[in-house]
Amino acid sequence: MTRQGWSTRRIALALYPFGAGAAAVNVFFASLIFSWIGGPVASTAWSIGLGCLIGGPATWYFARHIRQLMDEADGKETP
Questions:
Q1: What is the pLDDT of residue 74?
Q2: Which residue in 20, 19, 1 sits closest to 63, CA to CA?
Q3: What is the pLDDT of residues 49-73, one digit of tens each?
């Protein structure tokens, strides 16, 4: 059985900028919350760097979920 539409890899590549950006914002806000107990506030560069690192796996799992939903909508079995 062949899949129609985008592959998981293509979906992940298309959504990666959004996933990395969302992860960077979350890292920054987490550092702000951590600063309440005496921790340092992350700089912009650190937030973006960690966001790019964390955003990769997060986007991949989200793309897998989207691909599964696409297969389900097409009425196919998921592998």
A1: 85
A2: 19
A3: 999 999 999 999 999 999 999 989 8
Q: What's the Cα-to-Cα distance from 13 to each of 4, 20, 49, rounded to whole Å?
A: 17, 11, 18
What are the E-state strand segments in the chain?
Answer: none
**Residue matched to tokens 């702000």:** 32
With contact defined as beta carbons under 8 Å apart, do 67 and 73 qualify? no
Report the distance separating Cα 16 and Cα 30, nearest Å: 21
Contact between residue 56 and residue 18 where contact means Cβ atoms under 8 Å apart? no
Verdict on whether the full-model pTM lies above 0.85: no
Report the alpha-carbon distance of residue 44 to residue 3 in Å, rounded: 40
> What are the domain boundaries of the chain?
8-74
**Angle, vertex CA 71, rays to CA 67 and CA 73, nearest 5:** 115
